[in-house]
Fold:
Amino acid sequence: MKKLLFSLLFIFSSLSAQVQWFEYDKALQIAKDENKILMVMLGRDSCSVCKYMKTVVFHDKNVIKKLEAGFIAVYLELDFDDIPQDLTYIGTPTFHFLDKNENAVYRFDGGKTVPSFLKALDEVN
Structure:
């Protein structure tokens, strides 16, 4: 019985895995402490592509693994959050990648499929 319960819990936790999001200031501190790149997604709750990224791409186990290995993720809602001045956008979503000193490393606009998002992450590192 214990083995069955453990197996079910493991399967459930695997299905609900997703990217861990941090507030900007906390994420910046973690990026400095762990020497990781800050990935900032600028989006809107009303953006259908943003929803796709959050519900499909950021639930993919390979994306989660790659982000956990080298990135700290931040989501900023354009309609509610304070956006740092250097983080510009044309539309949503917009992704900014910053080093631990907040210097721009890479940027792309728009959503991506899982394979193209993984490829973009490879280009950042």
Q: What stands out?
A: The chain has one domain: 18-124. Residues 30 and 72 are 7 Å apart (CA to CA).
